[in-house]
């Protein structure tokens, strides 16, 4: 907390701004934010009134989920098997917020030997994994645990004080040779910047 001493030539108005009495009685300027006035740092508006813009805000939000344990054939055509979803609230009641998301995906595959078993996965239609011939002839089934982190460059803006829902489809496809999948888990980490851009 900061204490500011002011002289008799300055007075606060009904919005919490300091007015310079020596400047006369300038016309009121509308507070340019959809929130209550703040206190520091001070700025001078066009009518010589001193006012304080609200502070910027930064937040990190996470969400996670999973398809649960399954034992399904990897489809030949890409098919949505899970959706990563998150609800993000703007931490500022004053500024719109810009959101940058990172999507972490964890896929468990089971590829049999003695064949051309393949599987692929993608997030937001961007392919990130393709496994081919994972187990040699005469071997046993191979369980393949794969992790991937992808930044989502779809810039999103949330209005001041608002919330928004975001979703990222996780797809599996390209399955041949009896390839199966057993789990698709995900975590989203979002960085929310309000008043900093």
Automatic annotation (TrEMBL):
Highest taxon of the lineage: Bacteria
Name of the protein in question: Uncharacterized protein
Organism annotation: Thermomonospora cellulosilytica
